[in-house]
Sequence to fold (213 residues):
Amino acid sequence: MKLYSFWRSSAAYRVRIALNLKGLDHEIISRRLREAEHRTSDYLSMNPQGLVPSLEDGGVVLGQSLAIIEYLDERFPSPRLLPADAVSRAQVRSMAQNIACDIHPLNNLRVLNFLREELHQDKAAVDKWYAHWIAEGFRGLEVLARRHTGDGKHCFGSEVTMADVFLVPQMYNARRFKCDVAPYPTLCAISAFLETLPPFEAARPEAQPDVDT
Ligand SMILES: N[C@@H](CCC(=O)N[C@@H](CS)C(=O)NCC(=O)O)C(=O)O
Fold:
């Protein structure tokens, strides 16, 4: 398998965690965003959206981290990232989608670049935008995590699920942009625990071969 990734991409970070959790051999191919390597014609022919990550498996290329992780979970069910029963599965998906659909797309690089370059917003305004959408998303997610955690170390129950796979990269981004995460003690405690687990540790941006590129 080949993962087209960028060290600082939180969507790629999610897939790196999932691949590590499942112990799947993979090659990481860097697409440096600042060098626009995700917009070259060869990359666009694989991923017409021009976003990382993409996963190549057996000649098939998949885009979108959520779809990729669900694909990996269906093909390699151990350990499973989605619970067996339908209600629990929907609850885990709902937490993951809080991040994937309602926080991350608003704070993506191209959105921030549009605010800066097309709408002429200064750093203070862009930082305020970023922090606002983190707070909006984390406020509800904190309540759900408190409701569903079984041990204060996982978003749902006491096993790693897809919700955890999405939380850690989003928490990394929140800290990177110096957002106040103190109002979300449950999310902070869960993320702090998960970050110590080897599959999460190995997936962190600073551990990537293309770090600082
Ligand atoms: N919904 C997509 C989001 C992918 C995405 O936004 N990737 C970012 C990096 S985290 C990217 O490629 N940004 C390039 C850009 O905005 O130009 C997913 O989950 O895979």
Observations:
- The chain has a mean pLDDT of 97.
